[in-house]
Amino acid sequence: MNIKNLYLIALISFSFIILVGCTGKGNKAYEFEVPQIDISSQQLADDRIRLQDFSGTNVVLNFWASWCPPCRAETPSLVGAYNTYRDRGVEIIGISVWTQGETIGAASDFIREFEVPYLMGADVTGDVYANYASMANLGSLRSPLPMTVFIDKDGYIMKVWPGGIEQDKLNAIINELFLD
Q1: Which residue would you say has higher pLDDT here, 26 or 133?
Q2: Which residues contact 147 (CB under 8 A, 6 or more apart)?
Q3: What proportion of the chain, given as a percentage, has pLDDT over 90?
């Protein structure tokens, strides 16, 4: 074996060790504060949803809009996951992205229609969604809705799921990331 081959093998081995050693937690999650949606008054509440309030809890953060067909399709899965995992250290938070004409009335109707039991907030500027889409390298103008972000109890992004997610896949990801 010549010296070039030895260097190549050493370089590949070193790269593999570095790559394997650097896997694990992703980026620190973007800290946000959004107004909670009050469906009874169809207003934005004075109560705020802050990621920092969930320190020590695994969070499934779901971005949605009432006009989005995949958002509507996946919401029963999120409701089911909330009912299954809420007592097991997993919190689900929904954030309505106010683009393309989203309103408090449409968001409230959506929450009521699907009987959503978990916290729902409004990203009225789109900044929270844009920051998460950017962190996930999804772009900004073509980023998909819905988008689900899995954040561990230490505040690190463990996975981003662009697009709709089905119940079986959602449960598998929650179990893999937070409960195994």
Answers
A1: 133
A2: 62, 63, 129, 132, 133, 136, 138, 160, 161, 162, 163
A3: 66
Question: Which tokens hold the place of 74?
Answer: 């996946």
Tell me whether strands 58-64 and 147-151 are parallel, antiparallel or unpaired: antiparallel
**Which residues make beta-bridge pairs with 161?**
148
Q: Which pLDDT score, from 0 to 100, does residue 119 have?
A: 96
Do the Cβ atoms of 91 and 118 come closer than 8 Å? yes
pLDDT of the residue at 9: 37
Contacts of range 157-164, beta carbons closer than 8 Å, 24 or more positions apart: 157/25, 157/26, 157/27, 157/28, 157/29, 158/25, 158/26, 159/26, 160/132, 160/135, 160/136, 162/136, 162/138, 163/70, 164/70, 164/71, 164/73, 164/74
Residue 21's φ and ψ, nearest 5 degrees, are -70, -20
- In the chain, what are the domains? 26-179 (3.40.30.10)
What's the pLDDT score for residue 143?
Answer: 61
pTM score, whole prediction: 0.82
Q: What is the DSSP letter of 139?
A: -
pLDDT in tens, 51-67: 999 999 999 999 999 99
Q: Which of 46, 109, 113 is nearest to 76 (CA)?
A: 113
